[in-house]
Amino acid sequence: MNYLIVGASSGLGRDLAYTLSENLHDLVLISRDKRDLDAMKSDLENKYKTKVNSYVVDLASKDSVISFLDYNEIKLSKIDGVLFPIGMMSENDSITQIKDGVDQITNANFLSIVKFLEKIIPIFKEKQKGTIVGFGSIASSLGREKNMIYSASKRALNSYFESLSATFITSNINIQFYILGYLDTNLAFDKKLILPKASTEQLAKKIFKNMDKNNIKEYYPGWWGLISYFISLIPFFIIKKLFKFIK
Amino acid sequence: MLKKKIISLDRSTNVDIFIKRPDKYREIENFSLNTDNLITMGGCNSYTPASFKRNNLSLLFTKFDRIINFDKMNKTITVEAGIKLSNLLNFTLKENLWLPQIPGYPSITLGGAVAANTHGKSSDTHGTIRNQIKSILIFHKTHGWMNLSDKENKSIFDLTIGGFGLTGTIVNVELELIEITGCNFTTTVEKVTSAKDAIEKLNKRDLTNLFSYTWNKTYNKKRFGEGLIFNNKINENEKNLPIDKMQFKNKNLDRHFALNLWNKFSIKFFQNLYYNYFTIYKNKNNNDNFENVLFPYAGKESYFRMYGKKGFIESQLLVPLNKVDIFLDELEHLVNTHEPDIVLFSIKKIVGKELFLRFENTGVCFTFDFSKNKKNLNFLDKLDILCIKYRLKPSIIKDSRLDSSTIKKCYNDFENFKKDLSDFDNKNIYRSELSDRIGI
């Protein structure tokens, strides 16, 4: 099998690449920095003898994404599955500070994925099979003062994947969406968090195990599902009071 | 930024540091550029605080652990410096190649080994890791990316090997690997009657042995250094068997027992037990696997924990060949006079050349482990005087007590190292508790 990993060079994307390679799948890796991609390609090929192609694409830039998709249709036609372990955050992601960063965060976390799938879904339809894996965030459960564009983009992505599930419910195109809590990635490494961080390596193994299943929507770690459920039950007038209390 | 309490393995230093873990190349640049002072951290397995400094940034380099290039034909490999040595060997041994200069714990990283210019058990054949290094890529906050080798930036290349990470972050290293014909060993154990007898036997060792080193008892005044000599050679009967992947669990090395369990009674008890185990219970020739021979401390972390809250001191001394006899006489006299509690005493030979602050020369390497108490510290002060008198090299990476004045007197190149480093980086951007202590 041949998998495309969009956002492959660090965190979950990196562990997905290793898990898939270890299980002898060929890979197409996409990331922003050639140095990271070259290091991964060489390491994977040396260790697992699988075939790895890599492409530099800045997922925060609409032009970079469109240019890649326009020039690489043939390569995409060989893909059996696509995974989007992308998450771009910014220290300035708040109403007063964000300014020019809105487009970048929205592109990286939502619009670039939509653009990729515009090209890939017709290929999967023609093959009558394929796997699409997206990743949301627990941050999208509730509006927030910090990371507001990030959480809004992830909520949009959640809705988009629900629509994909609805569209392909009876087909052999597998739609999977994981809503992620705290993971042991660089986004969380130097932050003191109340709840523990989950291992990206374990998550990658779980995703690999589920690869042939259709219509997955799961929280990881699972107990975030319970927290999210309780948040959804709280009436907005109480949430307003909570916001005031925090301020 | 995350502030974390950290303690050196010998428990000499306990400080708060800032820590970041880059996993992309641009993060090495960004994290380095956005701070005044920093140092790189690998496995954080040095006995001394070489990879951190109070309130300074440590770049945890463990995500940079990939194979950048492997050329089987020319036996070279380029690897990112955060790779654990056990993982590097897991890859190379499959190709019947290895890096011989491996220190005794599997989670030590390649970058750490280069920065400390480590030697392994075959130090009398292979010398230090310097002999395997073809080139190094570093990132320095002001100089940026630099390729270092004998042909390019040679002066910085020389400063970096055994330079305690003070020339910048070691990002990747090109190594020349050595062929190995098998991964299982036959270990021969032989008795030695004294430290001098041990050295005589090491001098006459059978060259088919890959490793030869001693373990010596320390409590017997009449027969100081009586003990065992271990010789490991490749097991010819299991020569071509591929190695199983070495798997080591992450052990929490900073744990300790409430009390120091090493005293003269326990030392005598354990040393007798160990000696009798090998002389009475075990056969003279035993089969051993690669992990046990190469990483003797893995799985035996309790040894460090038994030193309790105060921790331990390891003194490793490099004695030139022509001074070994006189050193042993003086050492024996000092031991008889001061009666220190020496938990571990081991001897091996080493070959190499002196340069800068590298623990390298042709001679004999003596290792002693002590618990931290007044009597032992007093003995160690006397040992320092002996080092200065005979210009022996005490290992800077092993002994947290060593001060600038002792090191200056024992390392001919101390001032040259300091000057060359200062010419390269006059702001001393890369600093650790170790570099501050020794006055660099």
Structure write-up:
Chain A is α/β, with parallel strands linked by helices and 247 residues long. Chain A has helices at residues 11-22, 34-48, 62-71, 73-76, 101-127, 148-167, 186-189, 200-209, 223-233, 236-246; strands at residues 2-6, 26-31, 52-56, 81-83, 130-137, 173-180, 216-220. Chain A has a seven-stranded parallel sheet, with helices on both faces. In chain A, helix 1 packs parallel to helix 2 (34-48) and helix 3 packs parallel to helix 5 (101-127). The longest helix of chain A is centred in the middle third of the chain and has 27 residues, at 101-127. The radius of gyration of chain A is 18 Å and the shape is globular. The longest helix of chain B has 18 residues, at 264-281. The interface between A and B is medium-sized, with 19 and 20 residues.
Topology summary:
The complex is a heterodimer of chains A (247) and B (440).
Chain A: E1 2-6, H1 11-22, E2 26-31, H2 34-48, E3 52-56, H3 62-71, H4 73-76, E4 81-83, H5 101-127, E5 130-137, H6 148-167, E6 173-180, H7 186-189, H8 200-209, E7 216-220, H9 223-233, H10 236-246
Parallel strand pairs in A: 1-2, 1-4, 2-3, 4-5, 5-6, 6-7
Helix pairs in contact in A: 1-2, 1-8, 3-5, 5-6
Chain B: E1 2-7, E2 14-20, H1 25-33, E3 38-41, E4 57-60, E5 67-71, E6 76-80, H2 85-92, E7 97-98, H3 110-116, H4 123-126, E8 133-140, E9 144-149, H5 154-160, E10 169-176, E11 178-179, E12 184-192, H6 195-203, E13 211-216, E14 227-234, H7 264-281, E15 285-289, H8 290-294, H9 302-305, E16 312-320, H10 324-338, E17 342-350, E18 363-371, H11 374-390, E19 393-394, H12 404-410, H13 414-424, H14 433-437
Parallel strand pairs in B: 2-4, 3-4
Antiparallel strand pairs in B: 1-2, 5-6, 6-10, 7-11, 8-9, 8-10, 12-14, 12-15, 13-14, 16-18, 16-19, 17-18
